[in-house]
Amino acid sequence: MSADQGLKTTASAKERTPTYDSPPHQLPRADHRATAGLTMSRTPLLAMLHTVPGLVTDMEHLAWNLVPRLRVLHFVDESLLQDTIAEGTAPGHVRRRLVAYARYAEESGAHALLVSCSSVGEAATAAQDFVSIPVLRIDTPMADLAVASGHRIGVLATLSATLGPTTRLVQDSAKKQNKKPHITAVKAEGAFDALRAGNRELHDSLVLDSFAELAADCDVVVLAQASMARAIEHIRDRPGGPVVLASPDSGMTQLSALFGRQDQ
What is the DSSP letter of 186? Predict the structure, then answer.
């Protein structure tokens, strides 16, 4: 069985690809040739990898707002997040699947792969070594902006599997910017279980309580999961409060830098 036959893939109306069910095998390492500021002689193609099906439409619209003529190919694999949650970190087979998706994106003609799930962000970073196209994490610009925006940074998540990778990403960004911020990581205990059980009200309440704890002592609060933004939207812009950052909007800025605007 080939590596491609391990992919369980869905596509937007813009692109159609086959669906496979078996787990992928590990793929050989490829030379990494970083790509930036691409000049496209034709409409660029972006592949996105999601672990939450409900994000597909919103993420596509955000991408189109920045690069209106962009073609988007979607991969949706909920098992990546489920297995990462079960293990508390991205296990080996999840990392191998990320490599397989990156290779499949490249072979499909995509100019970049954007991974929209912060929980598997470190696996996405590792996958970069196996392909020549950029593998982008949705939360990288958020981490960079957090470090640039304040010294006291709070990281808020509802999952330990997301809290760790996001905190480490902020730490890595601080090193790159030669800064030493004070980082406080907080998990909103019980919030994810409440959301999974369909109790959005309890989820929002628990997130709000944890946010208030961080906001009192932080200049910047990073929301490790975009699902938390709704819970604090009515208080996030209060005068004197911290800067609040979520990944989708800032994460898409990478597309402008990579592709430029294609609306001419």
Answer: E
Q: Angle at Cα 229 formed by Cα 235 and Cα 51, nearest 5°?
A: 175
Distance CA 174, CA 152 (A): 12
CA atoms within 13 A on the CB side of 184: 18
Sign of the alpha-carbon torsion through 253, 127, 161, 17: positive
What is the pTM for the complete model shown? 0.80
Using the structure block, give the residue that is written with the tokens 């209106």.
68
The answer to whether 218 touches 167, Cβ cutoff 8 Å, is no
List pLDDT tens digits, range 210-255. Answer: 999 999 999 999 999 877 878 887 777 677 789 999 888 888 989 9
Which candidate, 16, 258, 262, places its Cα nearest to that of 113? 258
| Amino acid present at 249 | D
Q: Indicate if the pLDDT at residue 205 is higher than 70.
A: yes
Predicted local confidence at residue 13, as pLDDT:
33
Cβ contact 72:58 at 8 Å: no
Mean pLDDT of the chain: 83
Strand partners, 221: 154, 244
Q: How many angstroms separate the CA atoms of 104 and 7, rounded?
A: 8
Would you give the end-to-end CA distance of the chain in angstroms? 44
- In angstroms, the CA 84 to CA 82 distance is 5
CA distance 139 to 172: 12
